[in-house]
Amino acid sequence: MSEEFSLQEVIDSFRLSLSDSKEIFLDQYVEGWRGLVKLLNSLGSVFGFISKDVVNKLSILVSLRGGPEGAHYLSLQSMVQYELQSGLVEGGDNPVSGTRGVSGCRTLLRLHRALRWLQLFLGGVSRDEGTPPTLCSLAYSQSLSQHHPWVIRSAAGLAFRMLPPRDPFLRMLNAGEPPQAVEVLGGAVPVLGEVYTITEELYSKHDLLNLP
Ligand code: 1Q0
Hints:
mainly alpha; Glycolipid transfer protein, GLTP; 0% strand; binds ligand 1Q0
């Protein structure tokens, strides 16, 4: 993956994360998120506190995947099964990964909730329903914000106001001129939606949607 953000690469990674049998592979899921971090970084230092948190969560997942129990972290489905069976899901000590008190399931749940925000936000941008700052805060209030304390909500609110207007924003996606970028965005939304829905059903089935 190149150093520069490309929306198409992000979509491709999330698309590739989906197997024929609708499993979600963790490596490609993480790769998709790495692409999003590049975009966050290119938006400027105001978004640094957000990208730091994402990077942190990705490195937890990468260390679990690269650890001795890594085979269990091939897919979200195998991760859930393994952590449930081993009593790790609530964040019991995981001496193997060095991520004490932090499970893969709870870590990924935070990214999963953020994916819903992204899906709503990108949907709004692609349909031109408002300016990026407005759509961003609307999507946030409909999704992630209910999981965040006041202090994070207000920091996020300040950051959203720094988002560029629509056309410069679309150009930052590196997906061609604005009309083309909108088309690519329109294609991204269903892919993110599918990954989101499969994860939501998996977590819901195992009662994992409120992991502390
Ligand atoms: C573009 C602006 C990005 C706005 C993202 C919305 C979320 C804002 C709030 C994030 C606060 C992050 C600070 C830390 C929060 C953690 O406490 C929280 C919970 O974790 P924990 O371990 O304390 O229980 N973490 C999270 O909730 C994770 C939040 C992840 C946010 C991921 C945002 C990903 C953004 C990607 C950039 C995409 C821009 C797309 C542009 C397309 C344009 C047309």
